[in-house]
UniProtKB/TrEMBL annotation:
Organism: Lolium multiflorum
Places the protein is found: Membrane
Family the UniProt entry places it in: Belongs to the glycosyltransferase GT106 family.
Record's protein name: O-fucosyltransferase family protein
Keyword Glycosyltransferase among record annotations: yes
Amino acid sequence: MVVAAAAARRRRVWRWAMRAVASAVLWTAVVQLASIAGVWRPRVLADCWGGGGSGGAAAGLAALAGEDRTAARLSPLALVPRRVYRSNGYLIVTCNGGLNQMRAGICDMVTIARHLNLTLVVPELDKRSFWADPSDFGDIFDVNHFINSLRDELRIVKALPLKLKIKTRRRLYSMPPISWSNDTYYLKQVLPIARKHKVIHFNKTDARLANNGLPVHLQMLRCRVNFEALRFTPQIEALGRKLISTLQKSGQFVVLHLRYEMDMLAFSGCAHGCSGKETEELTRMRYAYPWWKEKEIDSEFKRLQGLCPLTPEEITLVLKALGFTKDTLIYIASGEIYGGERRLAALRAAYPKLVRKEKLLSPDELRSFQNHSTQMAALDYMVSIASDVFIPSYDGNMARVVEGHRRYTGFRKTILLDRVKLVELLDLFQGGKLSWDEFSAAVKVAHQNHMGQPTDRRAIPGRPKEEDYFYANPQECLGSKGGLRDVL
């Protein structure tokens, strides 16, 4: 009897122990799944894709307006499980260019680091560009969110370990990766260098990864970094949300990315509509910057090729031809327009409801952003994503990255101007060879398929600079239902 009772107790204890272990395993799995869902699915899939249809775009814009993010920050953020892997070394990157050129470069560097199993040091930003912006990564982006939201993919650190930091002060292997390289180049050429030196420095990040021909999981990671991990700082987001809210109170609004700043014109050599004195000033600037390789430029020839931004006067005629009426609210997203209010006179006369952030925000609100062009550009970026219509006058980095982001949030209307055709039509109209009605009809016909609709990204083997840019049309991250990526 005693032996039987003891055996029964042991069986009960064993059953209790097994139940406890099973419960612990089950709860661990639940917590892991909740962490993944909490960081990746609700903010990226629900906010940006919304399960398909126009609801995805609405949710994405609600996030831009701060509704979802404000609510999320009121409760602790669940972390995705940390990916455990053996690191092959550390990757330091120094980004070059303006905000959106650096943004795309950061996405590429995260993807490369993940592909090579490297530990990424938080990127350094360009301080040598024309605007000489002293902003660091943490002045523009939320560093902790960047690190934590990607911890299931790779390890990101704020600085090298002290031992390696001391070592790299004496000697650091630095290189610019070959432009438009595929994943095989990084595995065969770069990984052995990283393993040998333990720390490798990329001193350029622009266009270092191919547009096409990459595995889908790498393309998806580029999107995840761009649309989820690169969140602006709370200060930038709060001011950006205020701008969006102010504009939305007046109804629908158009963002015109008027790329007519002094550095753009000097770099491109585009001087159409400028005085002789202004042309000389732009030429002197171009020669003053040794890293701007092209010096002797035929401005009119480039214009006829569609390689110049439209002037404020030209964009005024194009907007009217496209059917935008005088009461249209237009927000200008740009730096200081070359020629100031004098060059904006025709545009303002045609569209009196022309505004900029400097008009909608007080000097006190913008004071901390002054002399920080990348932070000012971040505000314009937020407004551009949220606008009802986005129209870039030139296909620079901001125009292309915003185009891709607007595709991602529901193929929102983005009018991509055919500058070759427009220059031809403008010259015919201004030369008296086309009536206004003929000019307007021709402009509308030329752009009926240039509204940011779903389309395949054009690939040109052997000529990556001429093919469509990945960040303008990240088609691997988009889907068929309502133009949004399908959600499983």
